[in-house]
Design goal:
The structure is a single chain. With 384 residues, the protein is mainly β. It is 7% helix and 45% strand. A hairpin with a 5-residue loop joins strand 27 and strand 28. The longest helix has 25 residues. The radius of gyration is 49 Å and the shape is rod-shaped.
């Protein structure tokens, strides 16, 4: 077989083809090097008066959960298409803008790539978006507080705090202000919080503070008894606070120091203090002095004024273990009042009719702690 010789012209033609191919490749590469994406920008709608304008902020972006954002390719070509991705997930967006709502807190990488009409892909451009969770206010549990006790609120859930109303609070802008509430009642305090990026909570949280009425207990009036004669003590719940526990001190002479009504039998003067407590821990104290009298006597005032300070006429037995009677007679010798209970007194009436100012005679009788009979008689003036 005869070999075919390659002529110089043929070589030139092959070289020319290679040059042309390289030129075409360069042109193709050159055609794909269109204007590169500068960066992604965030479009912010600004409202001024009745007009709206658009401001552009370069990435990265910080946003609150629930907020919507518009991201745009700066310097984009109207003939190109674009692929948007959030955290590697392709979005259903083909244009140079992406509108998205951030519903999950976290850090997300937003990526976009441009595709030119001639089939060439541009560089990837990306930016981070920091999505901050919405602040969640927690005003703490409802509280029941004893009267006069300071109330410390306990808020949480944010970086910035605002309590309302600010009434009685030491500082309404701290998570745990102290409320010094001077009056019993029910008070609502509402807490609003924001986080470090000022992401607010759609609605605040409320704590209900109940201030109980002032706890007050009465141990009884000071009294005098004979040596060894038992006396019934009684603690009275003045305000109906609802005391559940009582304790008396000292325990000397008491039959039960943990009851509301102990019996006391003593031979010397003593002061008892009662402490009453509620289920909520509210306490009240009062004291009674019991004096020892070593005489047996029945005392009756020399005058009284119905409707005044001394509105009832009483016989006051001292050292009497058996009180037999107390009787009052008018100047005609008529019996106008009689009782065997020293706690009962005459109100100045006879058969329901108020008596005029006048003098009356009283008589009383009882048995002393020493067993001796005590009979007393005297005069009293009724004053109108």
């Amino acid at each position: 077989m005869q070999k075919k010789l390659i002529t110089p012209s043929a070589v030139y033609s092959l070289t020319e083809v290679i040059i042309k191919l390289k030129k075409i490749q360069r042109e193709r590469i050159k055609s794909c090097m269109y204007k590169q994406i500068l960066h992604i920008v965030l479009l912010l709608m600004l409202t001024v008066g009745f007009t709206r304008s658009v401001a552009q902020n370069a990435m990265p972006d910080t946003v609150c959960v629930g907020a919507s954002r518009v991201y745009k390719v700066e310097g984009s070509s109207p003939l190109s298409t674009y692929t948007w991705m959030i955290a590697g997930v392709v979005q259903a967006v083909g244009g140079n803008e992406m509108n998205t709502t951030w519903n999950t807190a976290g850090v997300f990488l937003v990526t976009v790539q441009e595709h030119s009409p001639n089939g060439c892909d541009g560089d990837l451009r990306s930016g981070f978006v920091y999505v901050d969770s919405t602040a969640k206010a927690n005003a703490g549990p409802d509280m029941v507080v004893c009267f006069g006790a300071p109330v410390r609120l306990s808020g949480s859930g944010g970086a910035n705090y605002q309590w309302s109303p600010a009434t009685y609070l030491t500082n309404e802008n701290t998570p745990d202000p102290v409320a010094n509430i001077p009056t019993a009642g029910v008070y609502d305090y509402i807490l609003q919080v924001t986080n470090s990026n000022s992401c607010p909570m759609p609605s605040g949280d409320t704590v209900l503070v109940t201030i109980l009425p002032q706890a007050m207990v009465f141990a009884g009036n000071d009294t005098t008894v004979s040596p060894g004669i038992p006396i019934q003590l009684h603690a009275t719940d003045i305000n109906g606070t609802g005391f559940t526990d009582y304790s008396w001190s000292p325990v000397l002479g008491l039959n039960d120091w943990l009851t509301q009504n102990p019996l006391a039998a003593i031979n010397n003067d003593i002061t008892y203090t009662v402490t009453a407590s509620t289920a909520e821990g509210c306490t009240a104290k009062d004291a009674i002095t019991v004096r020892i009298s070593r005489i047996a006597e029945i005392y009756v005032p020399s005058a009284f004024s119905p409707g005044g300070v001394n509105s009832l006429l009483h016989a006051v037995p001292v050292g009497i273990i058996e009180f037999r009677y107390f009787a009052v007679y008018n100047r005609y010798g008529q019996l106008v009042f009689k009782t065997s209970n020293p706690a009962e007194g005459w109100d100045g009436r006879f058969k329901g009719i108020p008596q005029s100012s006048a003098g009356f005679v009283w008589m009383a009788e009882g048995v002393g702690y020493n067993g001796k009979l005590i009979s007393k008689k005297g005069n009293v003036v009724l004053l109108r």
